[in-house]
Write a structure and sequence with these properties.
This protein is an alpha+beta fold and 142 residues long. It contains three helices and four strands, in the order E-E-H-H-E-E-H. The protein has one domain: GTP cyclohydrolase I, C-terminal domain/NADPH-dependent 7-cyano-7-deazaguanine reductase, N-terminal domain (GTP Cyclohydrolase I, domain 2, 2-Layer Sandwich).
């Protein structure tokens, strides 16, 4: 008869920093500006709602004494607001693409999801819009 030799193995959690996930988000940031291709959209400002999720380099840690140590969401919202003031967009898709240019200026951002909606554009719809996900590699390769 054959004897089985079993060995007890202790399982330990992996201390891998890559499991850490740090995100910065901007939820329901609303500006009012002219946007759209239709004649009626060119005459009256309408609400544009942004929802953005940013995946941040995990080795970046906040320093309470230095705002430059974090991804500054106020700086991003100011840039998005400025975008819509200096350029008149026909499409939310174009605005989303230009938003990535502003977002990826901060080298600590690895990827971003940008969702832009027009809540009042279509009767009987809560909103219409576009959502785009890009990694830094996608952005720099385009």
């Amino acid at each position: 008869m054959k004897k089985n030799n079993f060995k007890i193995v202790e399982l330990k959690p992996i201390n891998d920093k890559s499991l850490i996930k740090r995100t910065v988000f901007i939820k329901d940031f609303i500006i009012e500006e002219i946007i759209g291709i239709h004649k009626h959209e060119k005459n009256k400002k309408q609400k544009i709602k942004f929802n953005i999720v940013l995946d941040i380099n995990q080795s970046t840690l906040p320093d309470e004494k230095d705002i430059k140590s974090i991804v500054d969401y106020e700086k991003i919202t100011n840039k998005l607001e400025k975008l819509t003031k200096i350029k008149k967009y026909n499409f939310l898709e174009s605005l989303a693409e230009d938003s990535f240019q502003e977002i990826f200026e901060d080298k600590r951002i690895n990827s971003a999801t940008v969702k832009i909606e027009k809540p009042e554009a279509i009767k009987n719809a809560e909103s219409v819009g576009v959502e785009v996900f890009k990694t830094r590699k996608d952005y720099e390769g385009s």
